[in-house]
Amino acid sequence: MQTPHASLSPGPLAGLKVLELGQLIAGPFAAKTLADFGAEVVKIEPPDGGDPLRRWRLLKDGTSVWWQVQSRNKRSVALDLKDPEAQALVRELALEADVLIENFRPGALEGFGLAPEALAEANPRLIVLRVSGYGQTGPYRDKPGFGVVAEAMGGLRHLSGEPGRVPVRVGVSIGDTLAALHGVIGVLMALHEREKSGRGQIIDVALYEAVFNCMESLLPEYSAFGAVRGPAGSALPGIAPTNAYVCRDGQVLVAGNGDSIFRRLMKTIGREDLAADPELADNTGRVARVAELDAAIGAWTATRTVDEVLAALDAAAVPGGRIYTAADIAHDPHYAAREMLLPVTLDDGSTLTVPGIVPKLSRTPGGHRRNAPTLGQDTDEVLAPLRAKRKIEG
């Protein structure tokens, strides 16, 4: 187990008690975010195998390296929620908790005898975050829903990929992560309100709604104009020029869509004629001629390396960047300077680099206080006070 850094602050959420009943991505990501900033998170896992994420993707010594990110700073308690005794223990833990997080299908928590309304009756200050595919109400509430389905229903998948081809997915579980972040926002708002009312509340986050909430002008454009936005590859429809372009040894992204930025970009690529063209002075005119602009920029990048293109763009103060791989990230000096490449020491003494803490607070920053737990590592420690209390009362 990694020894916490001596100068690490307790974090702005120190003292906050969180009970996590979720698994895989959305619920646990929300709890991980709270834990990074000092919340005491107790994760309830089934004794038989634990959270399935422990075995997802690439494994090191039998455990996913993803686990070291998703469950850092948490404690693990192994309980079978189908067992009435385990349910009773969870109810006791909920009596002392500030927040309970779950991402089961609607009705599952109630089936375990852990209905939020009943928990709140016993602990009126309890805040319950419920993350599900379609939300706790509505005609789709009982349908199984994963993040990929939410990305499709939320409108994102239709926009992904090249025109006329089957849509592609974003390479990560973005629907789950967006829902988790919306859940964290809800928890923080509920905590703020509790300071005034003294009461908790239930937060209902649907995966598809979290995606839909990030879809910008998609719906109002359809409402006002009947326009159905479609896929556009690496471009951003209605904003120009901004796209990915091929270089001699790779690709770069170039965002020249500000009026003055556009003029600097055109001068950089040797197209002063386009820089001075009054039809291209604003975005409306540039969108009408986007194919011409993309061709001009592409012709310039095609004869240069990525480094040469980026050096010229930097000199002209034009936003641009390489398309990073994991290897690029791991060796990038800016990532390192911003402490986004966080080395942790695992139980076997090896070092693993994991993502750093986001966001960055100046006075009470978050931090890596504890490695991800082994299954049930903290069961005895967490449950001992409850069992002692029962023995006294008995």
UniProtKB/TrEMBL annotation:
GO MF, any single term: formyl-CoA transferase activity
EC number: 2.8.3.16
Protein name (database record): L-carnitine dehydratase/bile acid-inducible protein F
Protein species of origin: Rubrivivax gelatinosus (strain NBRC 100245 / IL144)
Keywords: Transferase
Top-level taxon of the source organism: Bacteria
Transferase as UniProt keyword: yes
Enzyme class: transferase
Phylogenetic placement of the source organism: Bacteria, Pseudomonadati, Pseudomonadota, Betaproteobacteria, Burkholderiales
InterPro entries: CoA-transferase_III_domain, CoA-Trfase_fam_III, CoA-Trfase_III_dom3_sf, CoA-Trfase_III_dom_1_sf
